[in-house]
Amino acid sequence: MTPVRRRELAALAVGVAFAAWLVVRAAYAALPPFQWWLPVPLGVLAVAEALGARTLRARLSAQRDGRRGPGRTPSTAARPVEPMLVARLAVLAQASAWVGAVLAGCWAGVLLHTAAALSRLSAAAGDTLTAVLGMVLAAALTIAALWLEHVCRVPPDADDEGPGGPARG
Predict the structure, then answer these.
(1) Backbone φ and ψ of 167, nearest 5°
(2) What tens digit of pLDDT does each residue of 6-61 get?
(3) What does residue 165 show for φ and ψ, rounded to 5 degrees?
(4) pLDDT one-digit tens code per residue, 25-38
(5) Could you tell me what percentage of the chain is helix, strand and coil, using 3-state DSSP and rounding each to the nearest 5?
(6) Which of 74, 141, 150, 165 has the fewest Cβ atoms within 10 Å of its own Cβ atom?
(7) What is the phi/psi pair of residue 5, to 5°?
């Protein structure tokens, strides 16, 4: 499994922002008003993934330290982390990164239209606030997902390292 490329996420977000701007520009009058709470689930997911990354990093670190430490007994060693759990979290992180990039692009497209229409339309003020909140929370989801993906990477073993650095496989 290859890591998510940040450049691809950025390109996707820009492309979706342009497409969303075109759709919102054409159909803004027919759209219902955007409520401020619409992007809140993105923030909840971002917090959950960030907490998951922090917890997993601590457990993996404790597990690695437990292997190295002399005189460790089973009662003082860290509770092992299931490899399938880490694999599932890595897949969740990659999917969340893509979803966050798409939704950041959608909210950016809305923001491009509503920010330009602030002086002309009374509904644009509330929609602009929602779009800014949506962009921030979608970006937070993407960042938390990328951090979780980073935590799920397996570091090279000391046995794999040769004179030229870590072995590549």
Answers:
(1) -75, 145
(2) 999 999 999 999 999 999 999 998 999 899 999 999 999 999 999 999 999 999 88
(3) 110, -165
(4) 999 989 998 999 99
(5) 70, 0, 30
(6) 74
(7) -90, 125
